[in-house]
């Protein structure tokens, strides 16, 4: 049935299809022209010198004396897929050395020979053409003289089968072959093999292209079944080729290499075989694309879980380093090894500072005052003079920490009173035990963050939370929007800033617990050994350990804690108060709040409603301490010491004002000029921010109210709340308290309370009293705001009169006026009283405009 045609085109060049339809569709393939392989080779042989099978793709052999067989599984199938093996020659050298042509020939000879039926001695392997891509090779044999080609091939196949059965006696090889079916097999090459190295990798599907008349399914099955089990045969329909689907890829490889180029039906049909690429289906990708509502949230949950498992331990580690200051150079500066590096560093730093001072002295730079302050601030002896008054309060704060009972402490005082230095330097910094585990959080830095990402970054830096990926917030918002548009629901990837800060604090709580219990295991082991020695059995709990050793608990310091700011991050105050309340309730840390805003305590009361806070109030330094501090800063050789006493009284003991006063004197001003300039600046601040800010809706005060407070406090150090309530502008108690609280928050006044009830009012800064006196003493300013004050009083009385007149009109419409006579008399007296007040206010306005300060004392008479 088959006839060999060696001079046949392997792939037809141009094919046209003619259709005829006797019974269904039939196709007739007509070749317009073809090239003979032998003629093509002869033409190339005249030019080319290399005519091997690897070069030409054609394996030459004599039909009568030689035969070609294809052997499967001579090479590892994985080698065929190493397309970049040239880049890994060093790694693959050991593998390639095992499969040289000589060793493969030895393997073939071993497979085709047996002890009982060896091949004849004249049956030689003439050539071997490896096909590593397919995992096999073409082997050309010299046929023995006393055997036909068919007998020779049958003997080879029989010997290979016998060797396979012998190898199955080894249970391991039997199982291996049973699973992978990797024992070599051999098949006779019936066509003209096309030895190519194209990127057409083996698959179990074979495309059979017909050059000439196509074959039927039965014919195809008869031709290809010998190479292995066939799953399906797809006959040609619209295209001039059929598809053979084998069960195993090994069968497809053998069929492709043995049948391609086969000529049938006396040359009317030539078969050309190609691998059909495997279309691999990624079920994971398919599931993600087709089930987005399930897959996307699942993927995000997996990513979040992996991120938590990887990054959270790292972040907790860095938070612990931040609290314990493990790698702080200042902490180990007394270590003998650190001194080797630290001392030269300080020496070089001193040289640089000295050089700057030298340049500043000669250039008379304005930076001289700042550097002089920095030099003086480094002298502990001079600074401690101001802090000697607070020594008892420092001892009290340390005592509260060591008592370890409800250690929720509040340090309050006016701005510039040195609250932060009191806590960080003089209480914790000087204590080697309490100062070793401190976490400092500056609320002002957080509240002034420009964006959400900046807030999260600043918060993470202060807590020690690292690494932080703020850029993912912007990306997650776009992802969340895309997921919502596709699936109809949010992915949950984007989180609010509140949620992210809560996550940071949650991890910080774990780090604080870890730091506080760092010595618990050693203590527990020591206690257990002691108990075993004494014959006792006592269970040591973590809470008991923290209660017995308060110095092991970290100290959380919250600075610049306020009730409300003008920014968009006010929630951080509530968030911090709730977090620290949980730390106190869990007995994990000591908490110290530093604030100048009395109203901020309400946040803490809401977080710990049943807690009695331990409070320390820091006031300004005494006059004697302030005087000694300024003299020490200026030096004992300062010539104008006699002027210092008179100039310090208006400044009081506020640290910021004292430092500014010293800087001005060092810059060349006299004490009197420095004081006048500072008073002028303070007066300008009051005028700009308080008197001229009445149009802003955020401020709930009027210029007349500010002027009233200024007039009263310019003559007295403090005024009582009862006295303030006598003024018509402060009649409403709720509005008055709101106004006074706002002014206290902005540091214009200071409110003193007795048992929680407002008792007296004083200036927020001692310097403001001099500023009030300066403003009230200015005739132009006095006339303007005094007239404005009486104008507001007139408006109040006019409003009352209008209200009384409306009530009179309503009463006058009633028929029985005798019953309402007393009410009418009452309203008439009220109208007369308000009218007399208006007349008096107008007279005083005219006197003020004429005489200026002549009516300066009138204000106190009208209360």
Biggest β-sheet strands, sense, barrel: 5 strands, antiparallel
Count of discrete domains: 4
Tell how many strands the DSSP assignment holds: 19
Mean pLDDT, all residues: 80
In one word, what is the shape? elongated
Provide the low-confidence segments as ranges. Answer: 1-35, 356-383, 854-863
Helix content: 40-55%
Can you offer a commentary on this structure?
This protein has 863 residues and is α+β, with helices and mostly antiparallel strands. The protein folds into 4 domains: 15-38 and 194-275, Alpha-Beta Plaits (2-Layer Sandwich), CATH 3.30.70; 59-188, no CATH class; 316-327 and 379-617, no CATH class; 689-858, Arc Repressor Mutant, subunit A (Orthogonal Bundle), CATH 1.10.10. It is 53% helix and 12% strand. The chain has 34 helices and 19 strands. Strands 8-9-7-11-10 form a 5-stranded antiparallel β-sheet, covered by helices on one side. Strands 13-14-15-12-16 form a 5-stranded parallel β-sheet, with helices on both faces. It is elongated. One of its GO terms (cellular component) is mitochondrial inner membrane. One of its GO terms (biological process) is mRNA processing. It comes from Hyphopichia burtonii NRRL Y-1933.
């Amino acid at each position: 049935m088959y006839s060999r045609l060696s001079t046949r085109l392997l792939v037809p060049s141009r094919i046209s299809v003619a259709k005829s339809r006797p019974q269904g569709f039939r196709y007739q393939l007509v070749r317009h022209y073809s090239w003979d392989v032998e003629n093509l080779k002869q033409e190339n042989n005249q030019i080319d010198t290399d005519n091997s099978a690897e070069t030409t793709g054609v394996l030459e052999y004599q039909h009568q004396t030689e035969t070609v067989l294809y052997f499967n599984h001579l090479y590892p199938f994985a080698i065929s897929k190493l397309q970049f093996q040239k880049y890994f020659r060093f790694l693959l050298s050991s593998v390639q050395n095992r499969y040289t042509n000589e060793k493969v020939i030895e393997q073939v000879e071993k497979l085709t020979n047996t002890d009982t039926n060896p091949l004849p001695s004249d049956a030689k392997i003439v050539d071997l053409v490896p096909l590593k891509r397919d995992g096999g090779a073409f082997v050309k044999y010299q046929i023995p003289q006393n055997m036909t080609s068919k007998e020779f091939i049958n003997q080879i196949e029989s010997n290979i089968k016998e060797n396979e059965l012998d190898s199955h006696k080894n249970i391991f090889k039997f199982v291996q072959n049973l699973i992978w079916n990797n024992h070599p097999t051999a098949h006779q090459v019936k066509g003209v093999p096309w030895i190519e190295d194209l990127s057409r990798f083996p698959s179990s599907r074979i495309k059979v292209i017909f050059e000439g008349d196509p074959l039927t399914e039965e014919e195809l099955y008869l031709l290809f079944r010998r190479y292995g089990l066939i799953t399906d045969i797809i006959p040609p329909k619209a295209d001039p080729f059929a598809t053979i689907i084998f069960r195993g890829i090994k069968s497809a490889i053998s069929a492709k290499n043995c049948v391609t180029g086969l000529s049938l039906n006396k040359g009317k049909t030539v078969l050309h075989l190609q691998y059909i690429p495997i279309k691999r289906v990624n079920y994971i990708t398919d599931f993600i694309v087709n089930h987005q509502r399930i897959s996307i949230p699942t993927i995000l949950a997996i990513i979040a879980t992996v991120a938590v498992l990887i990054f959270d331990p790292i972040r907790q580690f860095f938070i612990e380093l931040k609290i314990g200051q493990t790698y702080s150079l200042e902490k180990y500066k007394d270590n003998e090894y650190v001194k080797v590096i630290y001392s030269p560093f300080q020496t070089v730093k001193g040289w640089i500072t000295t050089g700057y001072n030298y340049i500043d002295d000669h250039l008379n730079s304005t930076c001289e005052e700042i550097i002089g302050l920095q030099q003086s601030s480094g002298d502990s002896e001079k600074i401690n003079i101001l802090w000697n008054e607070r020594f008892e309060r420092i001892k009290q704060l340390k005592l509260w920490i060591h008592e370890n009972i409800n250690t929720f402490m509040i340090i309050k005082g006016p701005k510039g009173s040195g609250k932060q230095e009191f806590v960080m330097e003089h209480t914790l910094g000087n204590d080697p035990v309490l100062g070793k585990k401190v976490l400092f959080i500056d609320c002002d830095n957080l509240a002034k963050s420009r964006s959400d990402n900046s807030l999260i970054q600043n918060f993470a830096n202060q807590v020690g939370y690292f690494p932080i990926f703020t850029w993912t917030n912007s990306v997650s918002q776009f992802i969340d929007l895309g997921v919502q548009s596709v699936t109809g629901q949010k992915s949950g990837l984007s989180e609010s800033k509140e949620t992210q800060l809560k996550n940071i604090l949650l991890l910080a709580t774990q780090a604080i617990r870890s730091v506080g219990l760092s010595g618990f295991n050693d203590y527990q082991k020591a206690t257990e050994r002691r108990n075993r020695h004494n014959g006792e059995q006592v269970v040591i709990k973590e809470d008991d350990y923290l209660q017995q050793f308060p110095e092991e608990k970290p100290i959380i310091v919250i600075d610049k804690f306020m009730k409300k700011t003008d920014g968009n991050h006010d929630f951080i105050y509530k968030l911090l108060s709730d977090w620290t309340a949980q730390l106190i309730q869990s007995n994990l840390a000591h908490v110290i709040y530093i604030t100048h805003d009395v109203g901020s305590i309400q946040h803490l009361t809401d977080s710990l409603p049943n807690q009695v806070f331990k409070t320390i109030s820091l006031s300004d330094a005494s006059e004697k301490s302030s005087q000694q501090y300024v003299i020490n800063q200026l030096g004992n050789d300062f010539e104008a010491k006699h002027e210092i006493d008179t100039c310090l009284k208006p400044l009081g003991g506020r640290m910021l004002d004292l430092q500014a006063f010293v800087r001005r004197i060092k810059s060349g001003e006299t004490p009197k000029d420095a004081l006048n300039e500072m008073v002028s600046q303070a007066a300008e601040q009051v005028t700009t921010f308080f008197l001229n800010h009445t149009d802003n809706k955020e401020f709930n005060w009027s210029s007349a109210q500010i002027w009233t407070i200024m007039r009263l406090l310019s003559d007295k150090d403090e005024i009582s709340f009862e006295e303030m309530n006598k003024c018509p502008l402060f009649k409403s108690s709720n509005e008055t308290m709101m106004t006074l609280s706002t002014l206290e928050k902005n540091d214009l006044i200071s409110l003193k309370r007795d048992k929680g009830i407002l008792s007296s009012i004083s200036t927020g800064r001692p310097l403001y009293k001099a500023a009030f006196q300066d403003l009230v003493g200015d005739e132009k300013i006095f006339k303007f705001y005094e007239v404005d004050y009486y104008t507001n009083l007139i408006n109040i009385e006019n409003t009352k009169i209008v209200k009384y007149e409306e009530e009179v009109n309503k009463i006058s419409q009633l028929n029985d006026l005798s019953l309402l006579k007393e009410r009418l008399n009452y309203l008439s007296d009220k109208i007369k009283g308000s009218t007399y007040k208006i007349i008096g206010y107008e007279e005083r306005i005219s006197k003020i405009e004429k005489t200026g300060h002549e009516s300066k004392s009138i204000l106190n008479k009208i209360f």
